[in-house]
Structure formats: C-alpha cells, structure tokens
Amino acid sequence: MQPRRCISVIRPCIPAAAFAQNVIRMALSWMHQGPQACFVASIPLRQRLAAVTMRSTFQSLLLGATIALATQSVLAQQAPASPSAERAVDLTPEQVSGLLDTKPLRETLPNSNSVVVAGFRVVFVTRNAASARSGSGLANLGNTTASGSGARTITQSANASMEVTLENVDFARMQAIADKAYADFLTRLATTGRTILPRDRLQASDGYKKLELTASTAEKPYTVSPVGTAKHYTVVSPAALPLWFGHFDLPIGDKTAFALGNWRALNQLSVDTGAVVLVPQIVIDFADVSSSGNSMWKSSASVGAKSAMSIEPLYTRLGTFYAKIAMAGPLGISSLQEGLSIPGDFGELVDITDQKTKDTVAMGNALSGALSMLSGTSGTVRSVTKSALKARPDAYEELALGGVARINQLFAKVLEAPKQ
Length: 420
Known about the structure:
- About 35% of the residues lie in helices and about 25% in strands.
- The chain is an alpha/beta fold.
- Strands 1, 2, 3, 4, 5, 6, 7, 8, 9, 10, 11, 12, 13 and 14 form a 14-stranded mixed β-sheet that branches.
C-alpha cells in the first residue's frame, strides 16, 4: 500500500464542494490525530515514515480547499437555482435562424395571427446501439516475425458491438414530463402576441374530429425503431391531447408517405378556425454512443457509450399548417438543426451483459484464435456489451424539462407575431 492511498477517495467526478470537504476532513484528522488517522498500523514503518512528509502537502490542500469552498459558495449564489432560470435568456434573430430552419414557416405563419395547438409530442429515446468492425487488411500483408524464422504473425479482424438501454424512467414519468412540457409551451406561446384559440374550439372543429388517432396506452405505449437507426423511441402526447401522426411525421410516425387523411383533417381544422395549426415535437436522448466505424484497414474496433442527455436535432421540430380549403394547403416543418446538450448527472451506466453472452463470445474468440494458428489465416475477435443507464427519475425529469424549456423558448421566438 502506497501513501497516496490516503487520498484515493478524492475522485474528479465528485462536486467541488464535496472534494473540498473531503480534503478538509482528512487534513484536520491528520493534524489532530497524526498519520495513523489515514494509515493503519499494519503498514510497514518505512512507508509510514514516508507518509509523514506529506503533512505539509495536506496543509496546503487545506488552504486550497477552504478557498474552494468559499468560491463554491459565491458561485452557488450566482448560478441558476433550477433549469427554469435559463428560461429568461432571450434569443436574437440570428441565433434563431441558426438553430431552426425557419424558411418552411414563411408559407404558413403570415396567414393568420391566430393559432391552435392540435398536437404536442415528447419523444423519448429508450435504447441505442453501436457497432464497429476492422478487417486488418494491411496488417497481415507479408507479416513475419523479426527472427527471420519465416513464421507469420496473424492480426485478427475485430467486431465490436454494444447496446445501451434507459431504465427507471417508466411511462408515468414520461407522461408527467409530456404534460409539463405542454403546459410550458402554452405559457410561452401566450407571450408571442398571437391569439391562442381555446381547446373547446379545437374539439368543435370537424377537421379535428376527422383525425385518425394512434393507439397508445400506459400498458402499451407507442414505440418505434425507424429503419436505418439503432435507436428506439417512445412517443408520448400530453393527457390533454390525443396522439396522432401524418405522412409528414416519417420515420417517427405510423403513417405512410401516401396516407394524406390527417393532413387534410388539419387543413379542415385550419379552415374551420381560421388559424395556423401548430404541432411541436421534442426528442430527448439519454446517451452518447460512439463507434470507431467500419474499415478493412484498421487493426482494432471500438464502441462506447456515456450518460449524456440531449435534445435530438431534425426530429425535434415545429409543424405548422394553414389552408383555405381542406384538400390542400401549405405546411411548414421547422426542424432543429443543431442538437442541444443538457449537462448534468442523472444516472449511472452499468454493464448488464449476461453470462451466457460472455461465455459464447469467449468460446468463439478462443476457437477463432485456434483456427488462425492452425491455418495461418485471420479470424475475427468479437466483443459484445449490453449496458443500462440506471436513471434517477427525479434528476432525469428535471434535466429533461430544462432542455424542453429551452426548445419551447426557441419555438415561441419563431412564433412571435409581427410587430405592427
């Protein structure tokens, strides 16, 4: 055991205040009780004597930690108390145009100062995956041992894959987030200078009654994994509004490109109310998944994942619709162009790979290595990992709503009525 074990509890990932408190506690213990406070008597004498020289270091750390605590106190007074504190930050037109593709809205928003919210969706990423492969194409060309014996060294190809799932965030929690996100959007919409039609006007419209709804319950929520992506999504609508999709919602929605019924229903809703129909959608991701990619020339393959909440671009969008006749009318879909990172700790990523998978992979790798030795040809070494992000539900909700608030703010900025 080395003397540095005394401070091994200080980890870079713990908050600054906790770090400082740990240092102060150990330093005080050291000065009041002597080295034995940190080193057990069973440690060899020469190591304990070496540890004595660390006392001045602890005294310096004590001073630094005290300053850190004072700084932390000042910063705590200056920092936002909650995600809602960020909501007051205004956005310039240049920032808005850089974050949202607003060109599609030019055909819809200028037609009416009245708006009606016919749909609102919060989309939760619940699973993701990554894979990587290397072919070692160059590594084995003319490869021999340095001894000149003529024996070849074989570099195996590599195949790595991983899957990560979100846990501890159930449908009830998702529903609560969707309800709060919808309420926040309506609050911000009220500041845009536009006339917001009440929900009873929405429900009285013949167009609204014609919407073909999508089945989704707490027991069996609507989920989708679009072709071309490893992500799995759960889509939740607030309790005040039903879940539905149009052909314009691909690949998240359940309607094909030729299913125009709900588009025409929205057009009829716009005709009935004389308003621009709004349908916001916000996608919340929970992990950052990485891959070294696929290559015939690399000698290794790697995948990884880390806890990282963000608002996903492209599928996060503001849909707008306006029509004078039900059969046709302009629609404008304004998509988020840049993902929004939401810093904060909300859970722990743990390995949940089952033993059967581990044994199968290990046996396959051993067999591949043996065949390579016998045949002199390259085999493939596989790596399979299954991980789960064990979320703390309250922390997840708080961070998610903080990110949603910023997107709602962005949507509201775009929807601001022209100044007379």
